[in-house]
Every structure is written in C-alpha cells, then in structure tokens.
Amino acid sequence: MGLHLVIGNKNYSSWSMRPWIALKAAGIPFDETLIPFDAPDFKARLAKISGTGKVPVLIDGDAHVWESLAILEYAAEKFPQARLWPTDSAARAHARAIANEMHAGFLPLRRHLPMNMQRPAETRHLTSEAAVNVKRVDAMWSDCRARFGKGGPFLFGTFTAADAMYAPIVSRFHTYGVEGSAPARAYMEAVMALPAWKEWETAALKEEWVVADDEVDWPEVKRVKS
Amino acid sequence: MGLHLVIGNKNYSSWSLRPWIALRVANIPFDETVIPLYEPESPGQILKFSPAGKVPILIDGDVRVWESLAILEYLAERFPAAGLWPKDAAARAHARAIAHEMHAGFAALRSECSMNMWRPPAKRDLSGDAKADVKRIDDIWSGARARFAADGPFLFGAFSAADAMYAPVVSRFHTYAIDVGPESRAYMGAVMALPAWREWFGAALKEPWVMRNNEVDWPEVKRIQA
C-alpha cells in the first residue's frame, strides 16, 4: 500500500499544495483524494483521518500525518534519496528555520492575499503589515539564493521542502502583482516553471467551487481564461 | 566554541522556554543571553542575532537557527544520543504532527492565556475558541499518553521535542487553573516536576521586567513571591 495524500481545493488550499508539490517534484508516487471545502461531509471525513480535522493529511499504512511541514519531514525521512532537505547541515538548519517561519507566520500577508490561482494577476494594494511580510519574504529569498542557491534555481539550489513551503507564497505574489527584487522574481519564475506547478495549476483552473472569503474582488469573481 | 541560546524574558517568552528546556533536560551544555522583550533596545539587540528579529535564536559556530521548532530539529540531528524525537517512525511522525500543530496553532488560547509564570494560579473566563483549543490539547495529550507513552511520564514516554513544544502550554494551563482530564493533569505534574522546569521557573520569578499586555489582571500585577 502506497502513500495517500488527502487535500482540499487546488485553487485555494495553500496548505495542501505544499506536500503535494514536494512529492511530485521529488518523483515520489502517491494517490490523492480531494475533498472540497464546501462538501457537506468535509468535517466528518477529515475527523476520521486527521488529528486537526484539516487538510492536508498523509496516510502511509498506519501512520497518519497532518500539518504540512510535519508531512514534509515525514517524506524527507522516508525517501532520503529525494533530498527534501539540503545535505549540508548549516543549509539544512537555515532551510528548516525559514520553513518554520512560514508555517507559523506571515498572517497579515496570508489574510490579505489568499491563494486563488484562478484570479487574473492584478495588483492589490498592500496593508502596511502585509508589506512588512512581503519585505521579509523577499529578503529571505534573495539571501538564500545568494548564500545557498549555487546548485540550481531554487532557494537551496535544488528543490527542497523550503521551496514547497513557499510555493503558495509564489502563487500569491504572482496573483496580486506583488513587486519583488530581481532575485525574488527569478526565483518565482523557476518555481512556476516546474512541471509539478503546471500540473497543480491546470487542475486548479478547472475547479468550479467558489469560496467567497478568498475572493478579494467579491462580489465579483474574476477568472483567468483556462 | 559551544552552543549559545538567545532568549527573551523567562517569565513571559513561551517560545524561548521550548529549546531551553529541551537543552537542559538533554544535558546539552550551552550559554544563554536573555534579552528582555518590548524594551526600547530589544529589537535592535535581537536583529544583531537574527534577521527574523525574533527570539529564540541558537548560535552554533557559523550556524544561526531561529524558530523554536527548527532549533529543536537542529538539536535532534546534532545530538542524536539525546533522543529528542521518538525512535519509532510512526511515533516520531505523530510527535512532529502535534509539535507543528502547536507551532502554528492555538491562537485563541495563546492570546487569552499568555504565559506568565509569576502569576498565582487563578481561573479566567475563556472564549469558545480558547475552550476548543483546550479540549483539543487535552485530547492530544491523553491520546499520546495512551498510545505511545508506556515507557515514561511524558507524551512519548521519555522526554521529547514534543514535550518541549507543549511546556509553555503546561504553564498556561497551570496559571489559569484550566480544567483537564486526569491523564493530562498527571502529565502536567510530570513536566512541572522536571529539575529544568524548576530552574526556569525560579529564574522567571526573579525577573524585574513587567509586560502589561501579558498581565491579564492589569493594572494589578499579581506575583508569586520568589
């Protein structure tokens, strides 16, 4: 029995995207079940498989792992050849620090710029708190690219769990026309060029569910042409 | 050159307690610097150590790690003999899931029941959201105790990084006299009986710095005598 990942809507579920894109980019096979947020039995189904009743959840035999970053740690241990963390211990420590900073932080940015892949890219004015988050993320990406990014286009050269944690931020920056420095923009391009990104995005664009709270132009629902 | 941990006030800094108590329980030697939070010079002092501008920060030679859980992962790797994660893979996955759940969650509980070690234990009215957090944590603790803790009094038997992550929650539950089940009460007793806990608690009581936003009885500041 293989890995089984349970996720929410691809258009909106930023937490679901993290383990999904990591498993895909690493070539680790898995089955997926998508439970849309508006499904009447969403809570009942998740309560049985996830400690928090939230997506994403990874099921591997008897092991049930929730929380996106705990899933990434689990996959990194189980598939060491996938190198989901940098091999150098100082780089790995840095990668975990920024991954955890994402996991617990940037609330103003997350609230103000919800992930919404179907929305056409249009600039949204930032609150001052969100602007502080943007500045920090840009500085962090640029710093990683300069210090650790020699071996490739990602934060630590090759694709790692840290990139997976920031993939939904790349989507938000793109969707809301956030201005970034040159290294940050080049990094975003590299992430959005991943075949795994394209696959997720294509599926997201086909979804028909609308979550009003995540539509910043509400009552208008703007959609890119797919 | 040994490990150096930069932390905030022991009375109030719940994030700082986590790596500190893990290091002490595991008998790993380290130096510490305390930077009292929310003083005029604090932000500048912290930024000298970390670009994220937050405590705790662990310095190990050229390596600087921030975010409490990233520090715990670093220590678990660097000192494998300390056994900071459970040895069994399924138990370890569970430990990481609940550690990350703590790291990114329980916002209502954290804002209504700030860590404040010198406050004499007394009940406080909680919102529905905070009560839901309490129930979930009670379930997490009693669930881990029932499934994984045959070998000792902590969540996974022996003390692990998961206990370090929940240590400040033990303090909050104690300070605000929160009702939990017998399994969780016994667990709290075990954590508070740790010599490392007593050492931190003793130092917290002696601190002079008062943070009004964390004093729920403000303008009164209730203090246990050191």
Describe the structure.
- The complex is a heterodimer of chains A (226) and B (226).
- Chain A is α+β, with helices and mostly antiparallel strands and 226 residues long.
- Helix content of chain A is 50%, strand content 8%.
- Chain A contains nine helices and four strands, in the order βαβαββααααααα.
- The longest helix of chain A has 21 residues, at 128-148.
- The N and C termini of chain A lie far apart (35 Å).
- Chain B contains nine helices and four strands.
- Chain B has helices spanning 14-25, 42-49, 68-78, 89-104, 107-112, 128-148, 161-175, 182-192, 195-205; strands at 3-7, 30-34, 57-60, 63-66.
- A four-stranded mixed sheet of chain B has the order 2-1-3-4, covered by helices on one side.
- In chain B, strand 1 (3-7), helix 1 and strand 2 (30-34) form a beta-alpha-beta unit.
- Chain B is globular.
- Chain B starts with a strand and ends in a 21-residue tail after the last helix.
- The model of chain B has no long low-confidence stretch (mean pLDDT 95).
- The chains are: A alpha+beta (226), B alpha+beta (226).
- The A-B interface holds A 51-52, 62-70, 73-74, 77-78, 89-90, 92-94, 96-97, 99-101, 103-104, 136, 139-140, 143 and B 51-52, 62-63, 65-70, 73-74, 77-78, 89-90, 92-94, 96-101, 103-105, 136, 140.
